[in-house]
Write a structure and sequence with these properties.
The relative contact order is 0.06. The protein is rod-shaped. The chain contains 11 helices and 11 strands. It is α+β, with helices and mostly antiparallel strands and 489 residues long.
Length: 489
């Protein structure tokens, strides 16, 4: 609407200026013509009277001629008097320009100019030379008021203003309806379509028809909407494919981690299997009392439940999980990961410790199956970084991060999970590539190079990030930041 008002205002102003200039030039020309007609009329009357004056002056004398002039002045529209040019030039009422014009009387030319009268009214003076046969040249002074000219000028000026106003109004109304119909309404439709496109609605707009520039723009926008719709479907397909590929990679990494864990789990299953086997042999080969048989059966049952729990935990870890957002305890999740990795850690003489600052809020809403994969990967890396054994410290705390931190935006509450080991650390030249997919510093066959990359992606999907610090021969520290706000499923 603002563009419409500006366009309408400038066009209307241009029309008013053009019409006003035309009316002003016409007014000026007609006023000049009216003044020229007054001078022509005065000159013609003067010349007519001068002929009679010349005849009367020669036949009846000067007095009779002057009486004739007086009678002519009373009966006509001009005020007429007899003047002597050489005496007229001596009067002080004339300025230098008027006196210069009056000198032309001496050469027999008619002179006209405007001059204010005693009552400050502008009058037109016309001097017509008269030959009376004497050495001194005489002249008739015909003066007439310019009030009719002024009235005519006012009438012309009023007419000019009226015509200008009417033309401006008519042209303005025509422009208003034309611009409103041909410009503003199509622009409003195009703006609404652009707004819909901004909100993801790529439907075409067929309300604008014609062959002008706005119609061409509407057709171009419709073509753009069609291309955007195709591109949207292509992006959605590629996004779905990427999600499937990413999920497949994550599952592959879980299976790879399972392969590493399975050796320790096999040793962990060996002890309860030996107990079950021994008790079963006792029942078969020895002559036991009923009470002893019940004790052996109870031991077998307990060891079977222990093995079932270990196998179920492995199956849960290797199964491809569905995304499920829930509210749970991060500390409890890390303890479960400790139990899962316990056989592998004991074999390598690695010990886990979990510390938690006072009043730390460890309950958040997240996909805990994915977080389990993150912590399994990070803790396995710590175990593998300490071939001669050592300690892995996991610390939980809360922190308030402002916009000066890695995450932009207002201050927010985060839970930080700090995993520090006593391993060999990470070389400085490897730090910038450590999160790159398929990058690994492990021996061939010991890792896929996807673990940290997938962990990084999972944490980013939860609105967090991972900080990595390392000092060679003094261990590495991975700090996971997770926001405490609720996540949408």
């Amino acid at each position: 609407m603002k563009l419409f008002l500006h366009l309408f205002g400038y066009l209307l102003l241009g029309i008013i200026l053009l019409v006003g200039i035309d009316e002003y030039l016409s007014f000026k020309a007609e006023v000049e013509q009216y003044e020229a007609d007054m001078i022509s009329s005065a000159t013609q009357n003067g010349k007519s009277i001068s002929g009679m004056i010349t005849h009367v002056w020669r036949e009846g004398g000067e007095a009779q001629a002057l009486d004739l002039i007086e009678d002519a002045s009373k009966s006509g529209q001009f005020s007429i008097r007899w003047v002597w040019p050489h005496l007229l030039l001596q009067e002080s009422i004339f300025n230098a320009a008027d006196k210069k014009s009056l000198t032309q009387l001496l050469t027999g030319e008619t002179v006209s100019f405007k001059m204010k009268h005693n009552n400050d009214l502008m009058r037109l003076y016309t001097y017509v030379p008269v030959d009376v046969g004497e050495q001194l040249k005489g002249a008739l002074e015909l003066s007439q008021t310019l009030v009719p000219l002024e009235n005519y000028s006012r009438a012309m000026l009023s007419r000019a203003f009226t015509i200008t106003a009417l033309l401006g109004l008519i042209c303005g109304l025509i422009l208003y309806f034309f611009i409103n119909w041909k410009v503003r309404l199509p622009l409003s439709k195009l703006m609404n379509q652009a707004e819909r496109i901004g909100h993801g609605d790529f439907s075409s707009n067929h309300d604008i028809t014609g062959h002008d520039e706005l119609a061409e723009l509407a057709r171009t926008m419709n073509d753009m909407c069609s291309r955007l719709l195709i591109a949207k479907e292509k992006i959605k397909f590629e996004y779905d494919t990427r999600l499937k590929t990413l999920e497949q990679l994550r599952h592959t990494e879980r299976l790879s981690s399972f392969g590493v864990i399975s050796a320790g789990i096999a040793h962990e299953l060996g002890t309860p299997l030996n107990v079950v086997d021994g008790r079963a042999k006792m029942i078969i080969k020895e002559d036991l009392q009923a009470e002893e048989i019940r004790d052996c059966a109870q031991i077998i049952k307990n060891q079977a439940e222990r093995m079932t729990g270990i196998v179920r935990q492995l199956l849960d870890f290797t199964r491809r999980p569905k995304q499920h957002i829930s509210k749970d305890n991060v500390a409890l999740l890390i303890k479960q990961v400790f139990l899962l990795l316990y056989p592998m850690a004991v074999k390598q003489q690695v010990f886990f410790t979990l510390t938690q600052q006072e009043e730390t809020d460890v309950v958040l809403q997240a996909d805990f199956s994915q977080l389990q994969q993150v912590f399994v990967n990070l803790l396995m890396n710590s175990i593998q970084a300490m071939p001669k054994g050592g300690k892995v410290e996991v610390g939980l705390s809360n922190t308030i991060l402002t916009s000066s931190s890695q995450q932009e935006g207002p201050p927010a509450k985060y839970i930080t999970i700090r995993i520090h080991d006593e391993g060999e650390g990470i070389q400085e030249e490897d730090l910038e590539h450590i999160l790159t997919p398929f990058f690994t510093t492990k021996a061939v066959g010991s890792g896929t190079g996807l673990g940290l990359s997938i962990a990084h992606g999972i944490i980013e999907e939860h609105g967090g990030w991972i900080d990595i610090e390392s000092r060679v021969q003094k261990g590495a520290c991975f700090t996971v930041y997770l926001p405490m706000q609720e996540l949408k499923e």
